[in-house]
Amino acid sequence: MKLLLTSMLLLFLPNCFWKQKDYCPYAEEQNDWESEISEWRSIRIGGVKQFSSIRGKNRKLPILLFLHGGPGTPETPFLSKYNSNLEKEFILVSWEMRGSGRSFSTSIPEETMTIDQLVKDTIEVTEYLKVEFNHKKVYLVGHSWGIV
User: Fold this and answer.
1) CATH for the stretch 2-9+33-147
2) Average pLDDT for the chain
3) Per-residue CA distances from 4 to 1, 55, 66, 135 (Å)
4) Per residue in 110-121, is it b (16+ CB within 10 Å) or e — as a string?
5) In this structure, which of 2, 76, 81, 120 has its CB flanked by the most CB atoms within 10 Å?
């Protein structure tokens, strides 16, 4: 399943970046400032307060959820600096997973720091994003630990 999602993403991304904007199906209305989003959001996921950076030129663009490495190593500043072009084609969500970055808290029960819980959290975040932005799907990109 991960291989299929990665393959689909690798096939989809070049169409938006290496062709003229007219050919990218999601590039419409990207300069509509009323539709832009750039915020940090606190969301209760799996009973724990977790934070996400949400940025994009248009709320109608597809959602790209970035799953960072680590565990415990959010990459939000790197995404902002080196991958900001993605914000023209996607709503880029950099979720700082439980126990990482802004989502760190000493009150998080140690027994909840499991792969199973992180998978449940990921599903809950994707469901939240689909409802929040009225989208049917969310594209996932994982780096290092984020592909687990």
Assistant:
1) 3.40.50.1820
2) 80
3) 5, 26, 17, 20
4) eebeeeebbeeb
5) 76
Contact between 72 and 38 under an 8 Å Cβ cutoff? The reply is no
Cβ atoms 65, 129 nearer than 8 A: yes
Report which DSSP code applies to 18: S
Q: Is pLDDT of 32 > 70?
A: no
According to DSSP, the β-strands at 37-45 and 48-56 are: antiparallel
**What would the DSSP string read from start to end of 83-124?**
-TTHHHHSEEEEEE-TTSGGG--TTS-GGG-SHHHHHHHHHH
Question: Where along the chain do its domains lie?
Answer: 2-9+33-147
H or E stretch at 70 = none
pLDDT for residue 76: 78
The sign one gets for the Cα dihedral 83, 89, 91, 95 is negative
Rounded to whole angstroms, the Cα distance separating 97 from 73 reads 9
pLDDT for the residue 73: 77
- Is 56 in contact with 35 (CB distance < 8 Å)? no
Helices (H) and strands (E) in the chain, counts: 4, 5
